[in-house]
Amino acid sequence: MKDYMDRLNAEKIKGLLEGAQLFTDIIIYESLESTNTTAKELYIQGACGGTVVMTEEQTAGRGRMDRQWLSPACKNLLFSILLIPDIKVENIYSLTLALAVAGIDAIKKISGLSSMIKWPNDIYLNNKKLAGILTEFKVRGKNPAYVILGMGINVNWNPEKEKNILFPSTSIFNETGLVTSRNRLIAEILKNLEILYNDIINERLESLKGRINSLSLLTGKEVSVDIGEKIISGTVQGIDADGGLILTGQDGDVKKILNGDVSISF
Predict the structure, then answer these.
(1) Which one-letter DSSP state was computed for residue 22?
(2) CB 134 within 8 A of CB 121
(3) What is the pLDDT of residues 180-213, one digit of tens each?
(4) Cβ distance 134 to 123 under 8 Å?
(5) 80-98: buried (b, 16+ CB within 10 Å) or exposed (e) per residue?
(6) What are the tens digits of pLDDT across the range 75-99?
(7) Predicted confidence band of residue 4 (pLDDT cuts 50, 70, 90)
(8) Is 80 exceeded by the pLDDT of residue 3?
(9) Whether the Cβ atoms of residue 104 and residue 115 lie closer than 8 Å to each other
(10) Which of 146, 159, 175, 244 is a plausible cystine mate for 256, CB 3.0–4.6 Å?
(11) C-alpha distances in angstroms, 97 versus 90, 92, 122, 184?
């Protein structure tokens, strides 16, 4: 049976935004295959940048590399944000990390939990996955036509009881023993993201870079990064403002990797 105690409510979320102006078009569905897919369809239909698509349940949620994103109905945050940003293509991945920072700050404020960024698109807490981001975009000329930031956060369920979870996972409920208001949490995320988004639009990236690196789980660790055609191993030096992972390879050369699948031994 679905839990109706903490239903997502667009008007309640808007009331919690406290003057934030970018993300006021909030659309909530009972069930969707994928919030990213719906956001893309809304873009085609003429939706404005800043549209937020949320759902109580996803029947075909996706993570990176087409991995399945599992979530019971009415327990977690499942949403996508449509952006039409006037930025350089090379700064698209900074939006992914900006959402990660916005999420980490919101989780900290609401629950007191201190989580970290596992590059390129996950939030980890106590070496377990708490949230994931899936970024999709289309390029037109030298700029993105649109960017869709999809995010799933484990809020009020116990992922450890799920047999098909690929990675060790946790939730805010698991860590605190308390039920969290999803409406409050998404409102905090959107408020935080609007500030960071404006910094990116205005090319004020150094402050974001500092926040990203202060929250990086991988910095200083030995990792292997699968970039498709090969695997690069080395020591992580940090994350660049454009979202690239700075790594000193085993050959001693410093490399910047913009996308890949990271393996690390905790």
Answers:
(1) S
(2) yes
(3) 999 999 999 999 999 999 999 999 999 999 999 9
(4) no
(5) bbbbebebeeebbbbbbbb
(6) 999 999 999 999 999 899 999 999 9
(7) very low
(8) no
(9) yes
(10) 244
(11) 13, 9, 9, 21
Check if the beta carbon of residue 6 is closer than 8 Å to that of residue 183.
yes
Q: pLDDT, tens digit, for every residue of 129-181?
A: 999 999 999 999 889 999 999 999 999 998 877 666 667 899 999 999 999 99
Measure the CA–CA gap between 131 and 155, rounded to whole angstroms: 9
Tokens at 213, concatenated: 């690196």
Q: How far apart are CA 48 and CA 60, in angstroms?
A: 25
Residue 217: φ, ψ to 5°: -75, -25
Chain mean position to CA 235:
24
What one-letter code names the amino acid at 180? Answer: T
Backbone angles phi, psi at 98, to 5 degrees: -65, -40
Q: Take residue 187 and report the two structure tokens written for it.
A: 């409102």
∠ CA 56-62-65, nearest 5°, is: 165
Of the chain, the end-to-end C-alpha distance in Å amounts to: 37
- Residues 69, 83: Cα–Cα separation, whole Å: 22
State pTM to two decimals. 0.92
Q: β-pairing, 77-83 with 143-153? A: antiparallel
Q: Which of 4-18, 42-56, 232-246 has the highest mean pLDDT?
A: 42-56
Distance of CA 40 to the CA centre of its chain: 17
- Which segments within the chain are labelled E, that is strand? 26-29, 52-55, 77-83, 116-118, 122-125, 128-140, 143-153, 222-226, 231-239, 245-249, 254-257, 261-263
